[in-house]
């Protein structure tokens, strides 16, 4: 079903209510997602992005009910990842001569995915195509979040087609941001930014500044996933500016895994100490073996400090803790404090291992960390409370 966005601009995408894992199993999608594709029908007609490959046949059939496919003059691939380009093979079988506009890296990526030599037209920032009285202006956006990514802007209607930027994995019947539950919407927005765009924050700031310098009016942001921002679209841009600038709230997250509950006990005692030292701070505890990893990463992103705990096993840490530390390292968080802790029975290397990994990930690490021999006794529990107090003070700096 085509849904009108504005004037001659129509959404022709697919809402996926069932999706629960994305990027293989790397990203959890508790609320589904959408694959947003747009049809611009002026004197000339442009199709902007398609949908994920499992829905390709359905998509092309529905599109053919909306428009005679031979009337599509331009196909725009803002991003070659398969959740956006997956229907191109089926579509291009029907309109093989139609030009496909994308970046030079997009050509490489699309050929790499599909091994087809379509009528590619590489574009760069500032290039334009005329649709008649209106134009599409292309804006390269490399590493937001792939090298091939770009935006395009429709003059006259003042619409930015932003692909992955400003989107979120969120299935909603309303399609537009003013029709969505704001609490759900922004929860998915920050999760998307934290887990996908955090490493590219300097580029986010640069690209927003570049777009502002073009002095183009902005009425609507059409994303590739989730809602279309038609009610005050600058609100999500302002959130991105905040999130990209070493974002932190007055929160501390305590991440741990435990074998026989000793490290869990330490985590709870440390949380008690943090709150005693700073009642204004929000503290949350997460057993990383049982908690969704993307939800954990979102809390790390929002926090000013994290404490990470594991007992020692094989002179290292439990595999769940190693995995979350590896993910944290790749996301390159800025301006955050950290400390390691854990129980041990023999050699006790886990805390040193945790602190070294956190340091390499760019955290300001509280020296030494905290160890408890065997199951924490009363003294160890009291010491853990004091360590929590000390960490709260450490995070004030």
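^ structure tokens above, recovered residues below v
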């Amino acid at each position: 079903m085509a849904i009108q966005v504005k004037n001659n601009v129509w959404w022709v995408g697919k809402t996926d209510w069932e999706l629960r894992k994305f990027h293989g199993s790397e990203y959890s999608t508790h609320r589904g997602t959408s694959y947003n594709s747009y049809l611009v029908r002026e004197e000339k007609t442009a199709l902007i992005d398609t949908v994920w490959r499992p829905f390709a046949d359905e998509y092309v059939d529905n599109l053919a009910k909306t428009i005679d496919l031979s009337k599509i003059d331009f196909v725009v691939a803002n991003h070659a990842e398969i959740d956006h380009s997956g229907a191109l093979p089926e579509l291009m079988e029907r309109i093989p001569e139609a030009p496909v506009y994308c970046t030079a890296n997009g050509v490489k990526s699309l050929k790499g995915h599909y091994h087809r030599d379509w009528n590619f037209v590489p574009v760069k920032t500032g290039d334009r195509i005329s649709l008649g009285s209106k134009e599409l202006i292309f804006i390269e956006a490399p590493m937001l979040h792939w090298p091939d990514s770009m935006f395009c802007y429709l003059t006259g209607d003042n619409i930015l087609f932003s692909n992955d930027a400003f989107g979120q994995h969120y299935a909603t019947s309303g399609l537009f941001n003013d029709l969505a539950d704001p609490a759900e919407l922004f929860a998915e927005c920050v999760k998307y930014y934290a887990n996908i765009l955090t490493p590219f924050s300097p580029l986010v700031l640069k690209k927003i500044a570049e777009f502002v310098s073009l002095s183009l009016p902005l009425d609507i942001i059409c994303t590739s996933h989730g809602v279309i921002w038609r009610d005050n679209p600058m609100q999500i841009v302002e959130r991105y500016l905040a999130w990209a600038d070493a974002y932190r709230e007055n929160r501390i997250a305590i991440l741990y895994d435990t074998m026989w509950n000793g490290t869990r006990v330490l985590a709870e005692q440390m949380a008690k100490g943090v709150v005693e030292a700073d009642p204004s701070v929000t503290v949350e505890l997460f057993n990383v073996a049982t908690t969704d990893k993307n939800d954990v990463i979102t809390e790390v992103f929002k926090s000013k400090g994290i404490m990470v705990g594991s007992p020692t096993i094989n002179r290292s840490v439990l595999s769940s803790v190693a995995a979350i530390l590896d993910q944290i390292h790749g996301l390159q968080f800025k301006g955050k404090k950290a400390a390691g802790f854990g129980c041990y029975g023999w050699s006790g290397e886990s805390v040193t291992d945790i602190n070294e990994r956190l340091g390499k990930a760019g955290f300001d690490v509280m020296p030494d960390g905290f160890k408890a021999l065997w199951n924490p006794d009363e003294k160890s529990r009291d010491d853990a409370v004091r360590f929590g107090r000390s960490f709260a003070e450490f995070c004030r700096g």
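The longest strand covers residues 337-344.
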